Each structure stands twice: as C-alpha cells, then as structure tokens.
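Input.
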Amino acid sequence: MSLLILDLGGVLFDIEFEQTRQALLALPGYNGTPLTFGVEQQSDVFVAYDRGDITTAEFRTSLRSMYGFTCSDQDLDRAWCAILHRGLFADALDRVARFKARFNASRTVILSNISELHHLDSAQRCAPVFSAVDNVYLSYVMRLRKPDPNAFTFVCEREGFSPSAAVLVDDSSANCLAASALGIHTLWWVEEPAQPDA
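Output.
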C-alpha cells in the first residue's frame, strides 16, 4: 500500500521552459533585465505566482514593472503559456498505469507547481490524466509549492499516508531531494530527448 505522487509538467505533460522564456524576451518593451525561468531555478515573481501569493492581475503588473513589457494582457498571457504548446506526452496515460503498477500504489495523485494561467490554458488537455488519478493538487490553489517540504507533507496528510509510504516521481532534482529528506521514496524522472528523424 503506497501513495504515488506524480509531477505533471515534465513527467506527464511535455513542457518547454525555453519557449516561454524566449516568448517573454521577444515582447515589446523588454528592458534587458535578466529573466530566469527553468525547471530548477526561476525568478522570484514566477515562484510567487505559482504559489498563489499574487493574483493574475498582480502577476501581469509585476512583469511589466520588472521587465518593461508594453504589450496587451492577451499577448503577455500567450507568451507565459508558450511553455505548454506541446500538450500531454502521447503515452501519458500509459505512464500513469505503469507507475501505479511499479510502485503498487493504492492511491495516486498529481502534485503540480502551476500558476492560474497555466492551469486555465492546459486544464482541458490535462483532463485525461486528471481523470486517471485519485486527486490533483495544484500549487497556486494549495498556496504551497515544491520543493517546500510543507507541500509534500500537506499531500501525505490529506491522503492519509506517512511520508515513508509515499513515492514521488518528479523531473526536478530539488523536488526529489526535498521529498527524500522527509522519507518519501523518489524517482527523478529525466525525459530522454526526442531522436531526430532518420
């Protein structure tokens, strides 16, 4: 009997951080302020938005203030959501089933660091995997974001499992290290790059 905690982006949903970073850098008015947006490290404003510390309107205002963007809300939202253009991995549902079998999971949940805009943009495409698990935990709703240990303990407590009876599958080494420190078993998932067509 175990609790299986699956990450969404990078494990079940094919995301490209660089797509959003480049889309933001290309927006009109960009002032050259360094913009960090990746799986292991992000600028504070992106972390705050993922964690639900700021609203979508405040997020847009912060981006304009920090980076000088002069574009419309629609263009800003489109650039922010460029990371999501690929959608679920073709075998996402198979992955859920394989992970469940591999770890003999009695409960399976998704725990995702995700902002409101990213959730709204991807929710319909995520519906198949959301339906394949017992519960979905989103950072901006929980007001907790990985690798904060409280994010993991929150999920374990809600699901009625001790950390030692939980398994995390995540593409972030920082998230895996934080979970492991709590006694959660971890699988650091590294997606193999697509092979070029012959």
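The two ends are 44 Å apart (CA to CA).
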